[in-house]
């Protein structure tokens, strides 16, 4: 389900400090857009059993104050449209500024839950100062210090109450999202898939307002396409076009089971592509990579290998991902791409029986046991796949704390070699037995 928390506010109130704190256990996904004077950030955070995407709307536009304030206002509007919950951050040490009031006006008119977050409350003396923020008319004030972390737990406890739950329907169709940078060919691919087959296509209103799921049922494949390409709206401030497209991408990604990531063969894999890839990986989504516009590439017998190696280098260590070279305009390998997505979906739900898992993995572990640390030998006794919406394995052993990352990687590779989990992130846990 797509739960997005957007942090809005004027510069210097501490948005990126909070963002870093919320995503600290994970590697932050830093998005570096050209034309924007600082990075915009989005990443994955966790609180109790909830996983969600946090967006720091910190990017701002160089130029006159007018453009600058217009850009911030527009980001707030986009956040209202796209986010589940908005954190409106203000600074207790400066009180209320005009821009704070402007932002509050916009937020009051929106329909999304807004939390007024008074930041930099580093000590108790500053608590009283925050009362001034009641003047926004946006309800309770949540006092935090992003620097020390105080108050953030209480804030998140309240925030997650507004999250949408996983749908309970067991018989849902697989959901695929086609994502990628502007102009890579997303709309063309969707048109190629459904364009001339209107009779079998029914647009279905998505779970979230204004997101469209297209039902595809042809050639033995039935699934929902989470459509973002057709829904692009025009942002008034140029730099916000990117922001808008990132928001839509995150949302589509969160609503899908498998992400079909399209890369432009001519431009190659870029940082934004890699960010989307890692976001999919962290969200435990299946992934298929399409290298599109393959018709524009001059090829010899090494070209495919060169592309594959380059992509793998950038997506490492998660490299067990199907890569399909497509030309949407020449209708090359479009169906193969769909087959790959279906296979990945199947892999994502695959359950390896415990007996088979142990028959295959225990001899491998016996031949290559975990290296001993400080004279301690780890003995792995048995393995079981934990049920869930993506593959998770528990390795039961005497000393789980002594198993290091490289051995974990080794086990993951062996699982991948013996059971097809192509395109799917795998979780491995070591448990005491
Ligand atoms: P942004 O522009 O809203 O993203 O703000 P930043 O996160 O970049 O923070 C602006 C400045 O405020 C930085 O110098 C931070 O170190 C500082 N800051 C952020 N949070 C706190 C806090 O809780 N207490 C104090 N004293 N300073 C903070
Ligand atoms: P989107 O922004 O990702 O939805 O991209 P579009 O589907 O609008 O495609 C952008 C442009 O790339 C259009 O002019 C398409 O005709 C062109 N295009 C899409 N796929 C291909 C392809 O496989 N080969 C070539 N040569 N052009 C393509």
TrEMBL record:
Q: Extract the PROSITE patterns matched here.
A: G_ENGA
Q: Carries keyword Transferase? A: no
Q: Which GO terms describe its molecular function?
A: GTP binding; ribosome binding
Recorded hits in Pfam families, A to Z, give:
KH_dom-like (PF14714), MMR_HSR1 (PF01926)
Record field: transmembrane: none
Q: Which UniProt keywords apply?
A: GTP-binding, Nucleotide-binding, Repeat, Ribosome biogenesis
Which SUPFAM superfamilies does its entry note?
A: P-loop containing nucleoside triphosphate hydrolases
Record: residues binding GTP 1: 9-16, 56-60, 119-122
A GO biological-process term? ribosome biogenesis
Entry superkingdom: Bacteria
Q: Does the keyword Repeat apply?
A: yes
Give every EngA-type G domain span: 3-167, 174-349
- UniProt binding sites for GTP 2: 180-187, 227-231, 292-295
Q: Which InterPro entries match?
A: G_ENGA, GTP-bd, GTPase_Der, KH_dom-like, KH_dom-like_a/b, P-loop_NTPase, Small_GTP-bd
Which family does the entry's similarity section mention? Belongs to the TRAFAC class TrmE-Era-EngA-EngB-Septin-like GTPase superfamily. EngA (Der) GTPase family.
Which purpose does this protein serve, as stated in its record? GTPase that plays an essential role in the late steps of ribosome biogenesis.
Q: How does it assemble?
A: Associates with the 50S ribosomal subunit.
Under the heading PANTHER family, the entry gives: GTPASE DER
* Protein name per Swiss-Prot or TrEMBL: GTPase Der
Per UniProt, what is the name of the gene that codes for the protein in this document? Answer: der
């Amino acid at each position: 389900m797509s739960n997005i928390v957007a942090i809005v506010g004027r510069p210097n109130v501490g948005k990126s400090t909070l963002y870093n704190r919320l995503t600290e256990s994970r590697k932050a996904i830093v998005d570096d857009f050209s034309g924007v004077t600082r990075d915009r950030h989005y990443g994955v955070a966790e609180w109790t059993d909830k996983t969600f995407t946090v967006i720091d709307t910190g990017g701002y536009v160089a130029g006159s104050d007018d453009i600058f304030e217009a850009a911030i206002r527009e980001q707030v509007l986009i956040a209202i449209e796209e986010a589940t919950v908005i954190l409106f951050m203000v600074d207790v040490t400066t009180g209320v500024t005009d821009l704070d009031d402007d932002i509050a006006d916009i937020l009051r008119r929106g329909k999304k839950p807004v939390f007024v977050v008074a930041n930099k409350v580093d000590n108790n003396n500053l608590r009283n100062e925050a009362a001034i923020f009641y003047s926004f008319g946006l309800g309770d004030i949540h006092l935090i210090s992003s620097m020390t972390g105080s108050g953030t737990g209480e804030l998140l406890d309240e925030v997650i109450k507004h999250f949408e739950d996983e749908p309970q329907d067991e018989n849902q169709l697989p959901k695929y999202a086609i994502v990628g940078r502007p102009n890579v060919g997303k709309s063309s691919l969707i048109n190629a898939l459904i364009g001339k087959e209107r009779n079998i296509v029914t647009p279905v209103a998505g779970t979230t307002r204004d997101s469209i799921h297209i039902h595809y049922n042809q050639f033995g494949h039935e699934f929902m396409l989470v459509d973002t390409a057709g829904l692009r709206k025009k942002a008034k401030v140029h730099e916000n076009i990117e922001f808008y497209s990132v928001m839509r991408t995150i949302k589509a990604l969160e609503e899908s089971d498998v992400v079909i990531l399209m890369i432009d063969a001519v431009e190659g894999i870029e940082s934004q592509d890699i960010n989307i890839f890692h976001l999919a990986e962290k969200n435990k989504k299946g992934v298929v990579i399409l290298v599109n516009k393959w018709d524009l590439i001059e090829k010899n017998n090494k070209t495919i290998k060169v592309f594959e190696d380059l992509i793998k280098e950038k997506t490492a260590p998660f490299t067990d991902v199907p890569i399909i070279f497509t030309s949407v305009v020449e209708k090359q390998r479009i169906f193969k791409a769909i087959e790959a997505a279906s296979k990945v979906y199947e892999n994502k739900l695959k359950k390896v029986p415990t007996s088979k898992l142990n028959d295959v993995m225990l001899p491998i572990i016996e031949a290559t046991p975990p290296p001993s640390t400080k004279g301690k030998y780890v003995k792995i006794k048995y393995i079981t796949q934990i049920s869930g919406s993506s593959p998770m394995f528990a390795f039961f052993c005497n000393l789980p704390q002594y198993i290091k990352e490289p051995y974990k990687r080794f086990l993951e590779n062996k699982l991948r070699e013996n059971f097809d989990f192509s395109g799917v992130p795998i979780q491995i846990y070591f448990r005491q037995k």
